[in-house]
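Subgroup meeting minutes
Present: P.N., E.W., G.H.
Scribe: E.W.

1. P.N. recapped why we're keeping a running log of single-chain structure predictions: easier to compare across weeks, and new members can see raw inputs and outputs side by side.
2. G.H. added today's entry (560 aa).
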Amino acid sequence: MKKILNVLLMSIIVCSSAYAAKDRLPADLSGLTVSPIETNFLPHEGKVAISFDVTIPANYFERRVTFVLMPTLELADGEVIELPTKGVQGTSVIETNYPVVDWRQEQVISYSTKVPVQAALIHANFIIDAYLYNCLSKAERIDRLYEGPLNLGLYPIAPVIAPADVVIGDLLGEARPEGRIYFKVNSHSVTREGTNNPTVQRMNDMLKFLMQDSDFTITEITAMGNASPEGTDRVNKPLATNRAKAAITWMKTNIKNIGYKKQLKDDQYKVIDSPDFWEEFFTSMSGSDHPRKGEIISQYLGYKSDPAEAEKNVRDLMRNDQKVRDILFPDLRYSAIRVNFDRTLMDQSRLEEAARLYPAVLSAKELTQVAEGESTVDKKIAVYRAALELYPTTWELYANLGNAYLQKGDYEAARAVFTDGLQLDPNNPKLKSQLAYTYISEGKYQQAYQMLEGVKGAEADYYRGIILASQEKFDEAIPLLKANPEVNLAITYLNARQTKEALDVLQKLDQDNVYTAFYTGVALRRLNREAEALQYFNKAHQLNKGELGNRFYVDYVTVH
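Output recorded in log:
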């Protein structure tokens, strides 16, 4: 093409005055029509077929004119790919050897070619120049017929949908060993039978475990009394107080018997009010073997915010379920002893040992640390479930347990956990966003939208953006994802053919993340920077531990 252009320039210089009115070529090519440029991916060939038609009206050229189509592809970095030319000549042309056409009639020149698939074609500019030559006047000229994007169709890149970060609150449950002393009906006397039970044994075992740390110090021992609901408050309240006092007296001897050497003052032993009825019900049910334990707990989670309604519903349940009555009545005739303490921070191995043997000595925050350090998702789930039995009103544990189920791909279990958490805190934006995420993972976008209704904040907007991106509404998704400029914003830019913007986002992210490395390679390849792209693809291959799945083997440059 450069050679032809040089000849043209020389012709203009030499012949412009002599042939300005006599070159026998039309003044311009505005009367010609170029059809839409069609592309068709040929996967078995690894090529893209490009085709178009040029319609030339009758008598537009005289019979001595040769007409040659000269298409090119201009890539993002300015590289030009010259495609095969196609020419035709009029009936009186004697100096060229193209197929002959009769310019007195309308002509449709059909062009087609195939080019190897490559990422840079996504941003290729398709140019059609036409070379004209009149063999009588010797005039020649190149005119631009068409210029525009090639518009290859793309397989959309799916968002990287992953559970949210682990939630660790500042106050995630207070660790304290607890034992229970049971009493006979209407009695506040401590008996061997009342103290010889698994809860007391476990409390003592936990204290002995903690006493291995020389800095372990008991700061306070509290006792609360309780009485079963058969009697009146006039009888039950004094009885509960006397049971708590009896438990304090017994505990003073008990801690000496288990080997605790540090002295406690009298004011470090305290009688406190019994907990609300709902908490007692929940604690007893959690530790029971009731066949419908999970169902009942899930049903009654929401009553915590309304103590009166909670007690009414629990009492109704006790009247109608003999098994519940058998579980709760004995448990409501007791004194609970709780030991508050100070200790040094445990390292990870010590935390894991405590979680395995005596999880109640750990706070919910520490149990979260143990769970996230586990080697498998199933082990992580087991720790979180144990944590929830100890701290059933800690919403962060519901969020983290649900995330663990999502990592396992158990969407049904994740939904159940998030739903239970929302019964405790119906407007919790984190839990609602995570439940929406669960629906997104299943492709249930309408349910996800409904879950986010009324939820404000960057996280909710982020999930709305993911929903839109998953529905291939990329231009609408981008503004929502900008608040959290991570790999999904870059992917959405790639889907919207805004590759430079995607690369800018990716270069600001963690360069040792497998998704960052992979999609940086995708972006560079689309920008025709192949050598750099290969470096990132190699890095992604080294980082990949199964996260990329089929993504690593799919060529996102290919068209539909």
